[in-house]
Amino acid sequence: YGVCATACGAEVRRAPEADLQMSVEAIAEAADARTRLCFIANPNNPTGAYLNGDALRRLRAALPQGCLLVLDGAYTEYVGAGDYEDGLSLVTEAGDVAVIRTFSKIHGLAALRIGWGYFPAGVADALNRIRGPFNVSTLAQAAGEAAVLDGAHAAQSAAHNTEWRAWLKDALEAAGLVVHPSEANFLLIDFANAPISAEAANAALAREGLIVRETGEYGLPSCLRVTIGLEDANRRVADVLKRALADASV
To answer: For the chain, which terminal residue's Cβ has fewer other Cβ atoms within 10 angstroms, N or C?
Structure first.
């Protein structure tokens, strides 16, 4: 969001977080009468934290008039928390909320670059006037339609993620690592107090062909973001990190 906003000549303000959790109060304090857009990734990337429905409504009420609240729900389908809301009802309730979603995650169509949004009519009209022609290919549209109709695949993927996200979190915490709670399809692992650094852990994983995400660009240099994969990959991540920790402790 920051890169695109800067490219448009906008001033970017980032609200501080407490313990990697978004703060309604901090976001509202960062906004003023000139603020026109407020972007929230919910669940957040790369932390996996989220704002519940009550917090979203408090945030909407706290933002200045004329500010559009944009909820990026790329990881919505993975959420299991009972108090989570996808924000779609807020679009019709509030009139100044937009929800953007993607086919790249739960549906596995990242290479086709297709997503969707639910907007107030005025926002949809503005986007239709400025978007490029033929911005979504016919192949991407056909794949997106098939994905929407294949509810069994999405349900299976979500169930797999829930099972192995919990398994991997337990395995890594048993090894002595700090793993932040996540409602997405990844875990954020903190090596700040571990016997190895995030850089060393990343190198150990890479030597075994396991590619994870460094998070220094997010201001989290001591962390790695690990996407939940197939069973074999999840077990290999746990085994590699356990060995790396044991070797460093000798």
So the answer is: C
